[in-house]
Specification:
By secondary structure, this protein is mainly beta. It has 2 helices and 10 strands. It has helices at about 135-140, 145-160, and strands spanning about 1-5, 10-15, 20-25, 30-40, 45-55, 60-70, 75-85, 90-100, 105-115, 120-130. The strands form 2 sheets. The protein has a 5-stranded parallel beta sheet, with no helix packed on it.
Length: about 160
């Protein structure tokens, strides 16, 4: 597990490799933005676990994990927000989005909240879906081939 002890100020982190990550927000006024984009191909298995621990009042966190699964790949995102006791005015949001491109691709998205303090805003959003047919149809109606249209939708999803 990779542990980051984060102090006061605004910090951005990019997760580039599957694995386990823990971020401890140690001081009031600490703000973190964490992002990660993962693509599974063939029979790859990729798992990412991120834990944010708010250890002080007046802290902020925004975590966004995105993935696309091709072939028979498997993607798993586990996100956990922990707010310890006596940490009011904490604001934390977790987003996990996975797009299944391959017919046999699989995904798991597991959000978790552990809140032991009052006066906090913490929530999560999770989606696992296939490529929306209406988006492919729209691009095809504009002269884009089917494979290129799917590629454009996935690119927009991952980079948007």
């Amino acid at each position: 597990m990779k542990l980051m002890k984060v102090r006061k100020g605004h910090h951005s982190f990019e997760i580039k490799e599957p694995g386990e990550y823990k971020y401890e927000l140690l001081e009031s006024g600490t703000e973190v933005v964490i992002g990660g984009v993962f693509v599974g191909k063939g029979k790859e298995r990729k798992a990412v676990k991120v834990e944010i621990v708010h250890m002080a009042a007046h802290t902020r966190a925004n975590i966004v994990l995105k993935g696309a699964g091709y072939g028979e790949s498997w993607l798993k995102f586990e996100g956990k927000i922990v707010v310890e006791k006596n940490c009011p005015d904490t604001n934390s949001f977790l987003t996990e989005k996975i797009l299944l491109v391959g017919e046999k691709a699989r995904a798991e998205a597991v959000p978790d909240l552990e809140i032991e303090s009052d006066d906090v805003k913490c929530s999560h959003a999770v989606t696992v879906s296939k490529i929306p047919e209406e988006q492919v149809f729209y691009l095809r109606s504009r002269g884009v081939g089917e494979e290129k249209a799917k590629e454009m939708v996935v690119e927009g999803f991952l980079n948007g």
